[in-house]
Amino acid sequence: MTEWPDLAGRLDAESHVLPVRVYYEDTDFTGIVYHGAYVRFFERARSDFLRLIGIHHKELADGDHGVSLAFAVRTMTLDFRKPARIDDILEVRTGLAEYRGARVRLDQRIYRDGELLVFADVTVAVITSEGRPTRLPQILADKLLAHMPDERPMD
User: Fold this and answer.
1) pLDDT digits 0-9 by tens, 17-43
2) How many domains does the chain have?
3) Which domain holds residue 68?
4) Active-site residue among 12, 28, 64, 87?
5) In a domain, 57, yes or no
6) What is 38-89 written as a DSSP string?
7) Single pTM value for the model
8) CB proximity list for 138: less than 8 A, separation 6 or greater
9) Contact of 144 with 16, CB cutoff 8 Å
10) Which residues, 6+ apart, have CB-to-CB distance to 46 below 8 Å?
């Protein structure tokens, strides 16, 4: 099978960037993106960010690092500024804001043509298959920490 490295977006100096096209299924009857669709866009971007830095959900779940692990969303705050519409090409940016113990905080933003549409502040917990918070194995923590930005916020 041919690899499509751009399918998972790309990493740049400050964040992960995932292009997303708005389809009919993402919209309400007016052609405006339904609020729940943004949550799906953010989830895809978080998953692809992790994939590109070498942290794979399947390996976590399969216990490849000693114990079965997962990321569970603990909190998510969304700020809707402007609507996206059917056929728009969006850019979902994901940046690591904080990593501490079993908590990972990410800043996520959705842009259309450089204009900010939606902002999300997301905290995920690293948990075992029993639902207990735990730290990532050091090899995975190092992969995350390699993408911790200097104190620059994403604009």
Assistant:
1) 999 999 999 999 999 999 999 999 999
2) 1
3) 5-145
4) 28
5) yes
6) HHHHHHHHHHHHHHHTT--HHHHHHTTTSS-EEEEEEEEEEEE-S--BTT-E
7) 0.90
8) none
9) no
10) 71, 94, 106, 108, 122, 124
